[in-house]
Amino acid sequence: MQLLAVLYTNRAISQSCLKNFGSCIRDCKAAIASYPSHLKAYSKGAKAALALSKTEQALEFCEHGLSLFPNCDDLMQIQMNALRLQVELDRKAAAKAKVEKRDAEKQLATFQLALKHGVRINFKLPPIDVPDAAGVLFYADASDRLHWSVLFMYPEFGETDFLRDCVESSSVLDCLKLVFNPEQPAPSWDPQRKYTCKDESLEVYFEDTVDEQKMISFPVITTLKQLTRRKDFSLRRDLLIIIHVISKNSAKFYERWKTRLDEF
Known about the structure:
This protein is α/β, with parallel strands linked by helices. The protein has helices spanning 2-17, 21-34, 39-51, 55-68, 73-116, 172-179, 224-228, 251-263; strands spanning 121-122, 139-140, 146-154, 159-167, 202-207, 215-218, 235-236, 241-247. Keywords: Repeat, TPR repeat.
């Protein structure tokens, strides 16, 4: 019915003015279903689809409309705009696919490099969900020495420190000395400097990535190379070394920590 088509189209125009393009498209389809020769429903529907970057739907409106009104300049212009947009979307999709392919190849090369050096990776576990991890670095230098990012976690305070580039010949203690530099102000969370490299109060642990509740202690003088080659050590696929640091100087927390370890 022509009257019903006009009513649907008028409502579609109102929906379009409110930028409710999905509702506009539905009303235009209803108008066409009730009266297929209602030209305005085709053009309004095509424009709404184009506003949503739904080029296939816009072209469908144009194709059906032009089959009835082959000389409609408005529909021909919308059709050209839809084709241009489709070309642009295809170009962006191709560029995105190219970047994703390059990133995938780079990631594969990174994994191959780690495995070549005897590093174990647990691919079942997702990357650690911490903001610092976004800047994780891993590469081999000209001397074929691996460089790692290290995340120190302090369970007592829920704080972390992130070192982005540590050569594997460095010991964990060397890395901690960069964090707990006595010439720098004390961390706001440790004003009494209970965490210090001056004595032997620091204990370090890594998390067993097979049994996530298990913490494994290791000597603080261990180099990153020695740590990452241990048979009981494996990394998540982000290749971020995560080390938990505890201080014996925090007697109460240290006692609770040891009790917790004994429970497992």
